[in-house]
Amino acid sequence: MKSFREEIWFNIPSRRAFVLLTPKLEECVKKSGIQEGLLLCNAMHITASVFINDNEAGLHEDFERWLERLAPEKPYSQYKHNVGEDNADAHLKRTIMGREVVIAVTGGKLDLGPWEQVFYGEFDGKRRKRVLVKIIGE
Amino acid sequence: MKSFREEIWFNIPSRRAFVLLTPKLEECVKKSGIQEGLLLCNAMHITASVFINDNEAGLHEDFERWLERLAPEKPYSQYKHNVGEDNADAHLKRTIMGREVVIAVTGGKLDLGPWEQVFYGEFDGKRRKRVLVKIIGE
Amino acid sequence: MKSFREEIWFNIPSRRAFVLLTPKLEECVKKSGIQEGLLLCNAMHITASVFINDNEAGLHEDFERWLERLAPEKPYSQYKHNVGEDNADAHLKRTIMGREVVIAVTGGKLDLGPWEQVFYGEFDGKRRKRVLVKIIGE
């Protein structure tokens, strides 16, 4: 069995953003030399997300508006977590979007459907944060 | 290490439905010959879901009504994604229900709790779509 | 390839609670002797959750209030599942929080970010329930 580990770092200038990760994960699979296995990609921070959906700007706006409806940022005072912090909503938003994805590796490539794209979801940016990529297989 | 891969195809006649997957996954484990490992089952489409919950018709009606409340299908005009499409709600519903499940394989069988059943969740049907089953182990 | 399996049991005296799991998972990794691999931790019950977030009491209160807003427990009559049962809301709450987490094992340890803590989320307690820990690797 082989294993591979890499961190991918971000420093998003806004509070919230979605960043396409698929090309970086494809590089990781290539570097790992693994032909058949599983790839885990997870946010290492609890106010960020890794998820799979469509690479379409209109949908990303829909996600932003929808998450604000389900878990609004303001008023900060509505959350008990916001004592010296203001990011309770980011913890809730990331819960909806998910911490991690697990992707099959087949024939040395990410085994994704035709429209599947992997994204980093930032919900409390303006600082350095990272995701973990771990691949095991042969 | 052994690995196994199979696609399971669907063509759901309605826009939304839940389809029991557990027996098909049990067959996959048997065919794989893997005794100890991990099974990944994920939708390969971004308007569908694979999730684990109860095989109970009343609960499935509750899920349908609840998802419509959290991410309503209509009016289509409420979503920016719906330019030439009408399935933005399906992307949101699938986000709530999840893209994938990872299940332990133990003693050559799916290692599920007594009431755990795996389902395919369709949120934009009336066309051919599929899930991926990948198993790695020994 | 090595594999390891363990069940962790709970008997939560209240309907809902969050219980820290990280130290128990660290023990599992140690016992397994696995240095590089993947750990799956999932609820074996469909009204419970395993998730990763902050170990902060205020945030846990926010989660409780937020889940009650998205999927209220009462009135029981609002759910079709509640025929002889009263836990439909628990199935929905667990869907938001997630069934499982997959965590990398690196150098014989859980490969978590600085604030990542693993929790068991109980949404229909007052009875014996369990989570599964499965680790594969080398």
Automatic annotation (TrEMBL), chains A, B, C:
Q: Which InterPro entries match?
A: UPF0047_YjbQ-like (IPR001602), YjbQ-like_sf (IPR035917)
One family from Pfam that matches here is: YjbQ
Residue ranges of the TM segments: none
Q: Which residues form the signal peptide?
A: none
Question: What PANTHER family does the entry give?
Answer: UNCHARACTERIZED PROTEIN YJBQ-RELATED, YJBQ FAMILY PROTEIN
Q: Which NCBIfam families match?
A: TIGR00149_YjbQ (TIGR00149)
Instruction: Specify the protein name.
Output: Secondary thiamine-phosphate synthase enzyme
> Which organism does this sequence originate in?
Methylacidiphilum fumariolicum (strain SolV)
